UniProtKB/TrEMBL annotation:
Protein transport in keyword set: no
Sequence ranges assigned to domain PEP-utilising enzyme mobile in this UniProt record: 314-394
Gene3D superfamilies: Phosphoenolpyruvate-binding domains (3.20.20.60), Phosphohistidine domain (3.50.30.10), Pyruvate Phosphate Dikinase, domain 2 (1.10.189.10)
UniProt name for this protein: Pyruvate, phosphate dikinase
Gene encoding the protein: ppdK
Catalytic activity, EC: 2.7.9.1
UniProt-annotated catalytic positions: 346 (tele-phosphohistidine intermediate), 722 (proton donor)
Membrane-spanning segments: none
Pfam families named in the record: PEP-utilizers (PF00391), PEP-utilizers_C (PF02896)
């Protein structure tokens, strides 16, 4: 495209603009909407466009005393002259792809050049304004200011318009909070008096842009003249309501609405959020690992959290890091704040399951549980002091900030219903409790893809039973301890199967990294010793004997089932008894899936499979059609990915635990990663946190290899994804291309997965 084609009218004073494909690509920001509105026939202020490349060449021509490009530029300026032949006063505007606070405001009331040379002379008003407009793109920040390539810089544009008569008014095309079709007032301003004809402009611009727009018009003697428009940020609720309304108005199809809603914003709509943090600075920043905002009094333990909750008070549980012993406190607290941990840490996982806001990995936070004091930087906080946390961006504030509560209306259900009609991948949930299952079902979960059986032991009395089993010295003691667990588990599974009412439930066999379930503090050790009838010194000796240097790669998962087969026996008995009870109560066949975790070899899978099916066949459930049983394994180790062909012939399904697979592929502890991953991202070493968004080139390739080899060996093999990545939109788009059968995520991420997977299949 020649430079003469990079200066052209998008809204000529007379006639229509006929743009080439190359010229259309130049229309960034306001220019795009000016052209579209004029093209549709709505009265629009005369406007021309020129690129920086054109402007630079016009200046170069001045030095060469050349006038060929200048002649074309003057001809363009005449496109602003109406049929009366009188040159109008002019306006110069920037027009960037996205808003940038450093861009020059519109320069209004510029006289038309008196001679051709005045149109390019930087000492004259028009040329000076154009020069300043292009110079303003040099500011850093969003929009054109972030451009780095010479080509992008050359394609930056400036608008020259005729000055419009009458009163200039501004309004929104849709209400910024409700999404109702406007005209609507800008926040904090009254709605100007506008003629009825502005309604046609609002409908036109809303249909063309498909976004909330701030619209600038001139009103003169009851007539409206369009000047410009730019997109504006609206609440997630407003965007969602607007999308559904456009379908009802037949502007979009249902599928069109599904593809245009941002899944990331959908997640925020399910939680409280800060109304505004304007004028308030955070005292600390961590990782936002579970969305939503919360305010409350500081507590340091589960007992205080439960006490405040019983009194109807909000509280923030503040700890160095959470473990299984903290689960009741996490449930009772309004929000969770930890000094250590990351996206896939215990705090992050449990917070997302329970829907609690959580900020983790706050490096300048330390908690002294003995003194009951938290230190954030050089400030001290004690029980009862108030904090506000934002689990979206990881900010921590002193005091109580106002929160906006979620208002989930019919629009979200309508949109998700449309999304389900095009989605081909099932969405399950990761839960272990009836309450969490009910939440997930309300969000449209189609089953449970991961029930972490060890998470069923987080209450104090159950923790005692589990610790007794772990700390048992011999098989007889362990068998005695296990007998106390069977009743707990049978009731749990029966309730869970009943709650899911015939939807599949995938039970992961015990996978407790032992360090997470053992007492740590002196107080916990003394309490555990008393509950087990042991001397404190004897308990400490046992703890020393079973301590592991690297427990995340230690005695866990399938290794526990093989070394302690009585645990496997107990679990299978409890699962099958729970399924029988639920089947009899509901008069339904119960789909039960049992998954072996942390396998690395086919022989491990074979060993467990043989014993599982012996127990199943002896139960009589299969013959009675009470249970539809499936056996599979969780793929979390690189070796298992590479040998998936060996494993696939022995299982009905494989499900990728992407948290541990990321950890073991990278060789990075997911709990310790936050200490250096932020620096890696800041310095460009890693583009993204691999524990948040799947690493497609490494971990992703491992998954691809495993799926290909697994299905080659077993064409009927079902494939699932059950790591935290299954709730991340970018990761979900990658998984959708792998041919998986289902994904499983935390309850509050189920709507996000439903929408994202529908978009991926569109």
């Amino acid at each position: 495209m020649s430079l003469t084609q990079e200066m052209f009218a998008i809204a000529p004073a007379m006639g229509k603009a006929n743009l080439s494909a190359g010229q259309l690509k130049l229309l960034a920001g306001k220019a795009r909407w000016i052209f579209r509105v004029c093209e549709a026939g709505f009265p629009t202020v005369p406007t021309i466009v020129l690129t920086r490349a054109c402007w630079d060449e016009l200046q170069a021509e001045r030095g060469r005393r050349d006038m060929r490009l200048r002649a074309h530029w003057v001809a363009c300026l005449y496109k602003l002259v109406d049929k009366d032949g009188k040159p109008p006063m002019l306006v110069v505007r920037t027009s960037a792809a996205s808003h940038n606070g450093g861009l020059m405001p519109a320069k209004v009331g510029i006289p038309a050049p008196g001679a051709p040379e005045d149109s390019v002379d930087p000492a004259r008003p028009l040329a000076r304004a154009i020069k300043q407009a292009f110079e303003s793109y040099g500011f850093s920040g969003a929009g054109w200011g972030a451009s780095r390539s010479d080509e992008e810089r050359a394609r930056q544009i400036v608008l020259v318009q005729a000055v419009a008569g009458g009163e200039v008014e501004q309004f929104l095309t849709r209400h910024a909070t409700t999404g109702a079709l406007g005209p609507a007032a800008l926040p904090g301003s009254p709605l100007p008096r506008l003629p009825e004809s502005v309604g046609a402009l609002v409908s036109l611009l809303d249909a063309k842009a498909g976004r909330h727009m701030a619209c600038l018009v001139s009103v003169d003697k009851g007539k409206v003249l369009f000047l410009s428009a730019r997109p504006v940020q609206a609440s997630g609720d407003a965007d969602l309501n607007a999308a559904v309304d456009r379908v009802h108005r037949k502007v979009w199809t249902p599928q069109g609405a599904v593809t245009r809603v941002d899944p990331n914003r959908l997640a925020l709509m399910l939680h409280p959020r800060l109304k505004s943090s304007e004028g308030v600075s955070p005292i600390a920043m961590g990782l936002g690992v579970s969305p939503g905002a919360a305010s409350g009094a500081i507590v340091f333990n589960a007992e205080d959290a439960a006490r405040l909750r019983a009194r109807g008070k909000h509280c923030i549980l503040v700890v160095n890091e959470t473990g299984p012993a903290d689960i009741e406190g996490m449930k009772a607290a309004t929000g969770i704040l930890t000094a250590r941990g990351g996206m896939s840490s215990h705090a992050g996982v449990i917070a997302r399951i329970t829907g609690k806001p959580c900020v983790a990995g706050v490096r300048n936070l330390s908690v002294d549980t003995t003194e009951m004091v938290a230190r954030i930087g050089d400030r001290e906080f004690r029980s009862g002091d108030r904090l506000t946390i934002d689990g979206g961006d990881g900010s921590v504030y002193v005091g109580t900030l106002p929160l906006a509560q979620p208002q989930i209306g019919g629009a979200i259900g309508t949109l998700l219903g449309w999304s389900d009609s095009s989605r081909t991948i099932a969405v399950r949930t990761n839960v272990e409790t009836v309450d969490s299952a009910a939440t997930a079902l309300s969000f449209g979960a189609e089953g449970i893809g991961l029930a972490r059986s060890e998470h069923m032991f987080f209450s104090p009395e159950r923790m005692v039973a589990l610790r007794r089993m772990i700390l048992s010295e011999d098989e007889d003691q362990r068998s005695l301890a296990i007998n106390g667990l069977v009743d707990f588990q049978t009731g749990d599974y029966s309730a869970l199967f009943s709650a899911m009412r015939g939807l599949p439930v995938n039970v992961r066999l015990f996978d407790p990294p032992l360090h997470e379930f053992l007492p740590r503090t002196d107080e916990e050790i003394e309490e555990t010793a008393a509950s087990l009838g042991l001397a404190v010194r004897a308990l400490r000796l046992r703890l020393e004997r079973i301590a592991e240097i690297n427990p995340m790669l230690g005695h866990r998962g399938v290794r526990l089932a093989i070394t302690y087969p009585e645990i496997l026996q107990m679990q299978m008995q409890a699962v099958l008894a729970g399924a029988r009870a639920a089947s009899e109560a509901l008069n339904l066949t119960i789909p039960v899936e049992v998954m072996v975790p942390f396998v690395s070899t086919a022989t491990e899978v074979s060993w467990v499979r043989e014993r599982v099916f012996n127990i199943l066949n002896n139960s009589g459930l299969v013959r009675s059609d009470r249970v539809k049983f499936a056996f599979g394994t969780m793929i979390e180790l690189p070796r298992a990915c590479l040998r998936a062909g060996d494993i696939a012939g022995m299982v009905d399904f494989i499900s990728f635990g992407t948290n541990d697979l990321t950890q073991t592929t990278f060789g990075i502890s997911r709990d310790d990663a936050p200490t250096f991953l932020a620096a890696y991202q800041r310095k460009g070493v890693y583009e993204r946190d691999p524990f948040v968004t799947i690493d497609e080139k490494g971990v992703g390739e491992m998954i691809e290899i495993a799926i290909a080899r697994g299905r080659a060996a077993n064409p009927r093999l079902k494939i699932g994804i059950c790591g935290e990545h299954a709730g991340d939109p970018a990761s979900l788009r990658f998984f959708a291309g792998l041919g998986v059968d289902y994904v499983s995520c935390s309850p509050y991420r189920v709507p996000v997965a439903r929408l994202t997977l529908a978009q991926a299949s569109a």
